[in-house]
Amino acid sequence: MEALTLTDLEREALSLSLRVSLWAVAGSLPLGIAFAWLLARRDFPGKVLVDGLIHMPLVLPPVVTGYVLLVTLGRRGVVGQYLYDWFGIQFAFTWKAAAIASAVMAFPLMVRAIRLSMEAVDRGLEQAARTLGASPLRVFATVTLPLVGPGVLTGVILAFARSLSEFGATITFASNIPGETRTLPLALYTLTQVPGGDAAAFRLCVISALLALAALVASELLARRMQKRLKG
Amino acid sequence: MLDVSVRKRQGDFLVDAAFNSPAAGVTALFGRSGSGKTSVINMVAGLSRPDEGRIAVNEAALFDSAARIDLPMDRRRCGYVFQDGRLFPHMTVRANLTYGMKLVPAARRVIAFDDVVGMLGIGHLLDRRPARLSGGEKQRVAIGRALLTSPRLLLMDEPLAALDETRKGEVLPFIADLPRHFAIPVLYVSHSLDEILRLADTLVLMDGGKAVAAGPVEDVVGALHLSGAVDAAEAGAVLTTTVEAHDPAHHMTLLAFPGGRLSVRRMDLPVGAAVRVRIRAGEVGIGLSPPRDTSFQNVFPAVIRDIGPPQDGQVDVRLDAGCTVWARITTRALETMSLRPGQVVHALVKSVALTRADVAGHEAPPPQRAAG
Where is the ABC transporter domain (chain B) (predicted)? Predict the structure, then answer.
């Protein structure tokens, strides 16, 4: 039985990982939907650039992304210093920084999934809703959003999984502070750096894998239910 | 009064259509595909914006480039039934039906949910989702959904085009009944003459982006086949007749029209009922003297007015029998009989197609075909 109970360290890393990932996904979802809509439905000058910027974290070394975040949002960063001076807000080296780093890294995956399913929505249905008297905002809320539900779900799961596994940007921007920013991957990394940490590291590996599997199974079940709703 | 006058350039294609029609009954936009019908109806709905022009329903302007009026589509109050139904797949039939209705203030709802559901016969479908409906059922729900917004105008863009013949039969009678049930004018786009003869009161003929003719169906259809807007096989005359008498012994009904009488297979209509019939040019022959000893039941005197240009060995002859009737004969017959304009002949009608049995608002059973 001993092997099945989590150690304090494991429990701490796991709950921190979950908290960071949940906040990363919840915080970036509205933005993700907005950008997906913008990219799927609007043509504007600089669209390619916006698309490129969103996808940057996917191709940059995560350390670079983390460093850029540190330089902008850090205590002395371009934006960070004003946030601190005016509002007393400080992200760097807190769990919030880990959440931001995860959100930025996962953002392209989320936007991509939602955008694809938004492009697949029949514009004719939206037009029909307009002729029935619905304002553009209402059409979005009652027709577009429900129909991209499966895409949003995929985006959320992908982003959540990506957040759980986020390492490079987090350690650069948020550092590796036990109980504050030491998420599962960081804890795992730390254990591999100490002699005799192998067994503990292996346990963290298993926990990570189970978590990822649970997320995937949950998303599959939800997606099936959504499909069933659409098919009647 | 439905008043449309729009110009819009779409690439190389210029839509430049102007027509008006009484704001009662069904106005049909008719023409070949690519003639600009759908462009016009989309401009009325607000789905696309004319470069200039004016669109008004009963004096309420939906669009007026001069007055800078361009109501957004959700405020035009035009119910739109699309060719492909466009039901919301994530909602039940009931939720689809009430989607637009709920957005209309209760005081302005003139069409009741139960009436629509009853008339369209969709009561048993209310809890289903669109994916589990047949094509005909979907279109009926789409019609109901548009009606329930109590629109000032109902737009229908080829609502039957995506359905097979059987499914068409499931929907057409309901559309034919709309004007009688709900006093809402309908603008109906179709390339099927059959549908239009069955449904429409006013006909607007579209060709090359222009409205080339507009008026009561009988008047416009008579001139149709010269314009090349219909297939040769469709060409013919449309007459409004009245039921004069029944002949139960022979299962025949006598229909009176300005040129005489047509006897057709018995129909269950009261004497005096108005019936629209169609006589295809190919179903009419010409005799120099009244034929005896034939099975033709419908023969009446007529005067040749015009003889059209020969085409594939056939000519269309316009006959005046108190109203216009077309006859399609071979050029050989034309020569051997030496027919010429002004000549008095006899029109031999092989068959008459009944297209609409409730002209001028008479009660009517579902239309049927009648052979003469």
Answer: 1-233
